[in-house]
Amino acid sequence: MKAIIIGAGEVGFHTAKLLTTEANDVVLIDESVEACNRVSEQLDLQTLRGSGASPRLLKTAGIDEAGLLIAVTNSDEINMLACQIADRYSVGTKIARVSNTDYFSSGSGLTPKDFGIDLLVNPEQLCVAEFVRLLKIPEAKEIVEFEGGTVQLVSFRIKKTNPLVGKSLAELDNSGLLADIRFAAISRRGGGLTARRSVPTTFANRYIIIPRGTDILEQGDDVFVIGSALAVEQLLRLNGIMFNEYLDRVIIVGASPIGIQLARTLEQNNTDVKLIEASQERAELASRLLKRTTVLHGDYLQFRLLEEAGVLDVNGFVSVTGDDENDIMACMTAKENGAQRALALIQQPRYLPLLARIPRLDGVVSRHLSVVSNILRLIRRGNIVSVASLHGIDAEVIEIVAGINAKIVHKELLSFKTKFPENAFIGAVLRRDKLIIPNGQSVIQPADRVIVFSMPDAIPIVEDLFAERRI
Predict the structure, then answer these.
(1) Comparing 2-121 with 248-368, is the CATH topology the same?
(2) CATH code of domain 2-121
(3) What is the pTM of this model?
(4) According to CATH, what is the number of the domain 370-466?
(5) In what side-by-side order are the strands of the sheet with 2-6?
(6) Which residues lie closer than 8 Å to 129 by C-beta, 6 or more apart?
(7) For 294-328, what is each residue's pLDDT tens digit?
């Protein structure tokens, strides 16, 4: 497939990397010489320098042959205009990053379709939703929801006092604890690989195990579990992890668009919100935009101001200034001084492998991974309906529909033992309104929606197994 990507930032770069891995013909456009050079040095694709809203440049890129256009520059206007031009050339799928909600508000009279946009991606809204999920489940490092939240994938760390330490997954299954839940992966600290199904990562000298019944949980493991929302909640409570359905007090650092949207969302839940901003001008703007949030102006790295904001025992502390180093430092300072949970916004992906080594940082939201996850669900071929990239490990969770006459249907899963990738795992099956946690005797039917946890190199094999076949 011919694909044109406009914007060589982290989102554009990561998306281009995935597309080229899957043998697509990719052209990337950016106005920066440095950005184009970075892409050319690391990826096997064509780069063009200039404006992505230039009809001449888009023609040079081959827009009349393209099946996909992804516009993810920092300019909403360029992204929207690029999609409008692509629509004139009948490009199959057009994706645009648009941060300003005014363009398509109820009073604007405009819709994304007016600009030929098939998928509208708002990074701020995606990040806010993820922060809210993480605030409500203390100690969860990552939360991915499917089917409106009825199915969840949650990651958390196994502590020394955890009753699961030393237990094999087979023992837990026999005890009935895993009736509606499965362990999808284990991220374990160590220097070497212990099995063929162990996968090395760049994350803090850890490796990934796609678990089997004989695997034993160890202290310090980061586990990824998938199942019904109720079963996940029960497992978390067994592990001593309680839920904050009602957030009493939250401190937000940074009057950025994400900070203001997060404050608005929490205000609607009657949470006592305090927002700290170093810039007086932005603090004054925030105080005008927010109804019930207390806005404080000052240095958020100083304990005195945090004390004034009531950091001691605050339910959540979220730093979203846009400066990765300052956001991490603010969270560490808040955690040292009594915050129950500290979460940071991360702009640069290069920091993600290091964050697992910071015990005082409870979780992060990666702006670029949040956007990429939304883009992936449209650019993946076949019957994939949604995709989520994970922060803690180089893996994806995909929701895929089993096609008519697909290789995977009408046979017990046990018969695919040698055909299904070892570094992929079927976590759940959704059949109409019924959730099934599969075992070896389970049979997938056509039109079943299946949640698969997979390392990136296994996804093409998974797609092939679920693809509809013509007879």
Answers:
(1) yes
(2) 3.40.50.720
(3) 0.75
(4) 3.30.70.1450
(5) 46-49, 25-30, 2-6, 68-71, 93-97, 119-121
(6) none
(7) 999 999 988 889 999 999 879 899 999 999 999 99
